[in-house]
């Protein structure tokens, strides 16, 4: 009688790297009204009134403040839409993105 030898099946899982996250940063300026900044933060980043106020004040005092952290595409889209909301009203409101360390 002949015996068949079966090799055990080995499953290989591809190593999936998590997408690199990016910070959305609010840059302070001396012209955009505080109330408008709070409105944009609430609308675009779904913050409460209190959260939005704290972020706005931090940016005002320190010159900039991290608003949120997302994947690169989402961060860039939100920063662009928030900046464009300010431009549409004639304000120099600026949101930028940078990779999280």
Model description:
The chain has 101 residues and is of the alpha+beta class. It has one domain: Ribosomal Protein L30, Chain: A (2-Layer Sandwich), CATH 3.30.1390. The protein is built from three helices and three strands. Strands 2-1-3 form a three-stranded antiparallel sheet. Helix 1 (34-45) crosses helix 2 and helix 1 (34-45) runs antiparallel to helix 3. The N and C termini lie far apart (64 Å). 23% of the residues are buried.
- For the record, the CATH class is Alpha Beta
Average of pLDDT: 92
Number of domains: 1
CATH architectural grouping: 2-Layer Sandwich
What is the assigned CATH homologous superfamily? Ribosomal protein L7/L12, C-terminal domain/Adaptor protein ClpS
Number of helices: 3
Q: What portion of residues belong to β-strands? A: 15-25%
Give the fraction of residues assigned to helices: 40-55%
Shape, per Cα inertia axes: rod-shaped
- What integer value in Å does the Rg equal? 23 Å
CATH overall fold name:
Ribosomal Protein L30, Chain: A
Short description:
The protein is α+β, with helices and mostly antiparallel strands and 101 residues long. It has three helices and three strands; from the N terminus they run E-H-H-E-H-E. Helices cover 43% and strands 21% of the residues.
């Amino acid at each position: 009688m002949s015996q068949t030898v079966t090799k055990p099946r080995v499953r290989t899982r591809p190593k999936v790297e998590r997408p690199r996250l990016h910070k959305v940063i609010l840059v302070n300026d001396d012209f955009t009204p505080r109330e408008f900044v709070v409105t944009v933060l609430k609308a675009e980043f779904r913050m409460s009134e209190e959260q939005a106020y704290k972020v706005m004040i931090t940016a005002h005092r320190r010159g900039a403040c991290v608003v949120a952290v997302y994947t690169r595409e989402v961060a860039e889209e939100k920063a662009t839409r928030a900046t464009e909301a300010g431009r549409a009203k004639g304000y120099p409101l600026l949101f930028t993105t940078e990779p999280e360390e």
